[in-house]
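Before a colleague's protein record goes any further, I have to sign it off. Thanks in advance; the entry in question is below:
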Amino acid sequence: MSSDSAVRSVLAGLDSSRSWQEELYRDVHQHPELSHQEQRTAGLVAGRLRSAGFEVHEGVGGTGVVGVLRNGDGATVLLRADMDALPVREATGLPYASEATATDGDGNEVPVMHACGHDVHVACLAGAAQLLADGRQHWKGTLVALFQPAEETGDGARGMVDGGLAELVPTPQVALAQHVMPLRTGRVGTHAGSALTTAAR
């Protein structure tokens, strides 16, 4: 089977997964959690990964979740999404708008919302993981689905590494992250190396 037909075969399940992905997105959007407080979100994605057949590691670096799907000989590919929200009050008027509040690191009660698209990232990676698990007869290798906490505070990735990530997953040959950007619908942009404002930190 050619790589193009393999991709088409994996993506054939997209329509059937879209409804639960949208539901997951709305759920996570309505229940945002600050950096290092992503317990509910972590539980949702861990459950999704388990039901798709992944080996799941929870509590990596605090609230991080990693799923590993071994599917024969081949490259190891890591896909990453971040989970945390921001101390911002939502004023979108959406029917699933966040009304959540939380206590921040300074002990202040603050409003919380997904103002940076991490709810989208969670839903997209959960969907990709399910599609690749369902279509595993069309590819070989190992898939690592990594849900990172505390991107907004800049220490979530380091926490996962310090929490033993390298001992839990095989070394990836390719690592892909994602971010919502103001592009035309249906467009995907790629960039090699560091990108976005805090990439050089």
User: Anything to note?
Assistant: The mean pLDDT is 93. The two ends are 42 Å apart (CA to CA). The chain has six helices and seven strands.
